[in-house]
Recover the amino acids of this structure.
């Protein structure tokens, strides 16, 4: 018995020494950066409910002028759109970063505001094009490129307003009304179908031409094959398309041979400020009709406010003030992310519209844990690691949220602390 106890004692000392040596080799988790992060997070206890929260993942992408959109492609590059001078459109750029946040390529696209990529590694960029050599007039456009990841982009096609809309085949140029039209969001499906959200001043129903407010649908060859005619282009509703500012689908990187969603459903957010819209982040459901084809309608299930499972919900009346972008995680979590530039925040919802994330398996809490974060901070500058100022684009890849923190000229990265390894 004495020999057993002696052996156990020696093993315990040896294990302790190994642990100490391991900490010495890999470094202590306590350092000034980590301390600062958790100090900032402690400013608002609601940021870390039950010790579950999103925490900064360094390095941030800094010194990017007025970032408008961010997208992590199927090629694993991080694409950031910047507006170097908001008074002109010619200096908007696409910046391409590697996973270490190192800039590897840049490309000028006039008026670039939104970017996405399909499974062929074809890239789409929403911007503007000049109608003639005098450059007096410019219209909305989507630039279709290949080979961007190699730093040798090839322009395949340009979807130009109003020509790309099949309902405008027999209509003429509308002057200032057509100039006012914008392409505000891009998203792709599993089969490389492209959704393009559009806003504009003409939204009469029943005419030959479609309303400006809505989503144009293109096949992989760039042919206009549809439009969300069932959405409401001129008033607030659960299927409103008034002033769409962002769009997302359930198909997104990383590339997968199987398991990618084949759903045609979409999520949209409405940033329009001329109307007091009750619902500004919407889940739109696509159903197939043998006679009418794909029909896009409301998702009434998001009105299920089950307070036994969550405290806040995406479909609460007037939940948002000015949402800029929306993104749906394509993995098993299904989380939905919404940036709101008026609230300087990122909001996180489950795939049923409940705000928050699932609690850990060992948690005594059974409700969704609210992990939405942001705010401009006590000084109003919003420069802390948990603060945001005028956030715009958002995307999600490999359990990480990427946020364009426009007011601070940076792209921030965050990950749930329960996902940290």
């Amino acid at each position: 018995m004495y020999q057993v106890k002696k052996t156990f004692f020696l093993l315990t000392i040896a294990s302790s020494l190994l642990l100490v040596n391991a900490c010495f080799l890999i470094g202590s988790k306590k350092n000034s950066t980590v301390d600062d992060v958790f100090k900032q997070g402690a400013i608002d206890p609601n940021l870390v409910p039950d010790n579950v929260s999103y925490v900064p993942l360094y390095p941030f992408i800094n010194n990017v002028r007025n970032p408008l959109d961010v997208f992590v492609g199927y090629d694993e590059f991080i694409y950031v759109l910047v507006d170097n001078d908001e008074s002109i459109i010619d200096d908007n750029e696409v910046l391409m970063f590697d996973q270490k946040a190192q800039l590897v390529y840049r490309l000028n696209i006039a008026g670039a505001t939104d970017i996405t990529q399909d499974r062929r590694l074809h890239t789409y960029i929403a911007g503007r094009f000049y109608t003639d050599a005098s450059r007096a007039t410019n219209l909305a456009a989507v630039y279709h490129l290949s080979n961007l990841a190699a730093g040798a982009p090839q322009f395949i096609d340009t979807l130009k307003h109003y020509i790309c809309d099949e309902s405008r085949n027999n209509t003429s140029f509308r002057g200032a009304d057509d100039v006012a039209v914008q392409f505000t969001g891009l998203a792709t499906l599993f089969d490389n179908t492209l959704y393009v959200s559009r806003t504009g001043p003409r939204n009469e129903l029943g005419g030959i031409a479609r309303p400006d407010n809505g989503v144009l649908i293109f096949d992989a060859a760039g042919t206009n094959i549809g439009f969300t005619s069932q959405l409401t282009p001129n008033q607030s509703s659960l299927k409103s398309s008034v002033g769409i500012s962002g769009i997302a689908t359930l198909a997104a990187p990383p590339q997968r041979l199987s398991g990618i969603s084949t759903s045609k459903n979409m999520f949209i957010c409405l940033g329009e400020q001329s109307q007091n819209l009750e619902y500004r982040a919407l889940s739109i459901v696509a159903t197939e009709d043998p006679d009418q084809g794909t029909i896009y309608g409301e998702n009434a299930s998001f009105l299920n406010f089950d307070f036994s499972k969550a405290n806040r919900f995406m479909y609460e009346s007037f939940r948002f003030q000015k949402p800029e972008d929306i993104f749906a995680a394509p993995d098993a979590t299904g989380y939905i992310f919404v940036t709101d530039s008026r609230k300087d925040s990122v909001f996180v919802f489950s795939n049923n519209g409940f705000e928050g994330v699932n609690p850990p398996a060992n948690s005594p809490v059974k409700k969704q844990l609210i992990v939405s974060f942001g705010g401009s901070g006590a000084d109003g500058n919003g420069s802390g690691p948990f603060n945001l100022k005028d956030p715009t684009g958002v995307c999600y890849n490999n359990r990480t949220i990427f946020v364009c923190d426009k007011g601070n000229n940076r792209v921030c990265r965050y990950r749930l602390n329960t996902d940290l390894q």
Summary: Residues 1-50 have pLDDT under 50 and may be disordered. The chain is about 10% helix and 35% strand. The longest helix spans residues 2-26.
